[in-house]
Amino acid sequence: MSDRGLTERAARASSRHPWRVLVIWLVVLVAAVGTIGTFLESALEGEIGITSETESKRAESLLAEGFPPPPPEQDVTEVVVIRSETGSVDDAPFEQRVRRLDAALREAGATNLIGFYESGEEQLVSADRDATELLVGLGADPDEETVEPLVALVQALDEEPGIAAAMTGEWTSDADFGQLSQDDLRTGELFFGGPAALVILLLVFGAVVAGVVPLVIAIVSIMVALALTALVGQVFPLSVFTINMLTGMGLALGIDYSLFVLSRFREERAEGREKLDAIATSASTASRAVLFSGIAFVLAMIGLLLVPSTILRSLAAGAILVGIVSIVAALTLLPAVLSLLGDRINALKIPFFGRAASAPSESRFWSRIVRAVMRRPALSLALATGLLVAAALPALTLEIGSAGASTLPDRFESKQGFLLLNEEFPSSGVDPVEIAIAGEADSAEVRAAIERVEAAARRQPIFGEPAVETNEAGSLARLTLPLGGDAIAEDATNAVRELRADVVPAAFAGVDAEVAVGGATAEEIDYHDTMNNWLPLVLAFVLGLSFILLTIAFRSIVIAAKAIVMNLLSVGAAYGLLVLVFVEGVGNELLGFEQADAVEAWVPIFLFAVLFGLSMDYQVFLLSRIRERYSQTGDNDAAIAFGVGSTARLITGAALIIIAVFWGFAMGDLIMFQQMGFGVAVALLIDATIVRSILVPAAMKLLGSRNWYLPSWLHWLPDVNVEGTEPPQRRVKT
């Protein structure tokens, strides 16, 4: 069966038996709701980390082999800081309050508590003796819910007069990040992205029914994809952020795919085609472009699955699942809905904009721009390219990092705990550096090397007092360096990088021992390095696939190469603006964004794959209309003007919808999603305006008939004919 047969036959079957198709989708939707309620929560318990072998993992492995791990109930993951605003830790009333909190925390589920008043350890008291720490363990199998009652107790103490108290740590931060993710999903993506997308759809189609249908298709796709995610997560636990990505992508792709098909259906009906034939013709043209661009998007996301990162694989899995479901819905559910609605798809027209519902036509505004560009193609191409290159220049200084507790809004407990801890115990934290030294741990040369590392660490204020212990066999030593501040912030990562690159190699030069630097900060460094190392590989994978797919789709290596260069320009400009706004702080306050030391580590690689996948929608849809007209007339200039003019309203609307959806991410408080949402929105805005209206027509005008060049040795490639074929003669619509 040909791919043309696949889309057209699926549409014909669905449109001839619409109620049967709707019942099938309804059953699937009901099953999806049950699956989500049963399995989704347990599917989103995956941790963020790197799956490949790294130095930090090697350190963890050596320490696990040489030192018996402490019982889970003795493991310390959280820290509570209590400060007296009127006296010192030696005051009896203050001590009583701390002891009451200690007892209450134990009752609420803390399995291990280490405090100054029981242990007498002076390092648990601040330098000015007005604050103390409680080190807290949560037992064998903690989660975000375990920490909630403990946080409530600490907050209650903080409200008492003369006391400041706050809690931070691994599970406190995880709970806050999870809550912030839900808040952002609710307020940004659902309360902003969805409604904004509906408004744009209403304006594009000029009719309420036509505007609502794509949104309904997208919501159905999201629900089914969430159910599939819940099932996949039982085998491969996914990150909680998968939901944010799946919802955003589902709105963007589900609406876009329906938008293209529905628009072609309305165009065919306006020109006189009978209803079922109009659905079939839409399937053999617009649906073919949807299928092709959807496959391209999925393949781009598969590139992210290659990266040994649980967060990228989680985000990619959500995007792939909702992308596949959106394609299936556009090819089956939408034709069934169109069959039932017929011309009622144009019902409830909107004043002024409603005229678009009855007579789709070329956009005079964009057609004038395109013709002006083609009158001076070289100048237009040079100016647009220069503008995008200038926007991309800040990307040369792009550095990656990660969002820790310090990037959370101040209203969250873990942020308050971080601030209080950093103020009172600047060289203390719950995530120390742990250096594993495998060898003759008691030998003079190993001891001397360790002392050299300790001396170097003491010269850096960020490190606390070093501690060394040796296992019973004398084959392994553990050097622990307390680390102040945010363990994954720039100061911490720079200090640990220096340990790895300079201090440890110099101290152990010529010493017969294996040394590995581990701990949370070292893990973060390995994570950053993995992202940097895999970025060029993902670039090569996505670019290579894009070139092959576009060459097959349009039987032209020129079209494929040109599309890739233009996408690279828009991605480069997005990277540059990302650095300019978030790192340099140009306009960030005006836009409501946080300023950061670096771009989130996964954002550049993820942005690249997502933008190539999404921009493929516009490229395929635009170029398919240009090639369709060129095949009919052989007039290159007229085909370009027609292609841009006839798709302008749709592509502008589709781009604005995706921009609105991803601006919902940017409106949230999670800086990683602010960066991702801003990057996608800016790149698609550039792609749908500068690239579509200037670069594409200018370059195609200059190239002329060479646009469609395919070397003779590639003529064996299949002709998939994405733009479809010349439709049969029009029949009077009924």
Structure at a glance:
By secondary structure, the protein is of the alpha+beta class.
Characterize the structure shown.
The structure is a single chain. Helix 2 crosses helix 8 and helix 22 (636-666) runs antiparallel to helix 23 (671-703). 65% of the residues lie in helices and 7% in strands. The protein has a four-stranded antiparallel beta sheet. Strands 7-8-6-9 form a four-stranded antiparallel beta sheet, sandwiched between helices. It has a two-stranded parallel ribbon with strand order 5-10. The longest helix is centred in the N-terminal third of the chain and has 36 residues, at 170-205. It has helices at 3-16, 18-43, 55-66, 92-107, 116-119, 144-158, 170-205, 208-235, 242-270, 275-284, 286-305, 310-341, 364-375, 377-392, 413-424, 444-458, 490-507, 520-554, 557-583, 588-591, 603-633, 636-666, 671-703, and strands spanning 78-84, 112-115, 131-137, 163-169, 400-401, 433-439, 467-470, 476-481, 513-518, 599-600. The chain has 734 residues and is an alpha+beta fold. It has 23 helices and ten strands. It folds into four domains: 1-43 and 206-360, Multidrug efflux transporter AcrB transmembrane fold, CATH 1.20.1640.10; 67-174, Multidrug efflux transporter AcrB pore domain like (Alpha-Beta Plaits), CATH 3.30.70; 376-402 and 526-734, Up-down Bundle (Multidrug efflux transporter AcrB transmembrane fold), CATH 1.20.1640; 432-518, Alpha-Beta Plaits, CATH 3.30.70.
